[in-house]
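Reviewers of the previous submission asked for a worked example of the structure-prediction workflow described in the proposal, so we include one complete record here. The input consisted solely of the amino acid sequence. No template or homolog information was supplied to the procedure at any stage.
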Amino acid sequence: MVYRLFQFLNRFFPAKPVYAHCDIPCGVYDPASAHIAARGVYAMLEKMQPLKSLETVHDQHDFIRMVKVKEEQADVCKKELLILWTDYFKQEHLEMFPDLHEIFWKAAKQCSAVKRTTEIEEGKKLLELVKQISDMFRKAEEAKHSH
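From that input alone, the workflow returned the following C-alpha cells.
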C-alpha cells in the first residue's frame, strides 16, 4: 500500500538525485580521535610490561582487561583513520602528500599489528604513523584556509 502511494506521488513529483561528497558534514574531521585511540593502545602496552609473568590471578585479570582495551582502541583508531583517508583526503591532497596512501595503508596495518602483540615498540610505530597523518591533516587544513 505504502509502495503504491510512493509510486503515485513519484509520477507527479519525481524525486531528484541528491549527491554528497562525504558521510558527515564538512568541517568535523579531525585526527584527534585516532590519536587518542593510538595513545590508548600505547598506554595499555606500557601497563602490560610489568605483568608479563602473570604470576597471580589479579595480574592475569588485569592483563586480560588491558588486552581487551588495547584491541578495542586499535579498532577505534583504524576506523577513525579510514574515515579520514576515504572521506577527508581528496585527489588534490596527493599533490601535497605523494606518500599519503602509503602512510594510511601502513597505519591501518599497524592497527592490526598492535592487536597481535604486547611489544611496546609496535605501539610507538602506531603513534608515529598517526602523528604523520595528523601533520598532513593540519597542513591540508592550513592550505585550505590560506586561499
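The chain is about 70% helix and 0% strand. We consider this example representative of the routine output the project will generate in years two and three.
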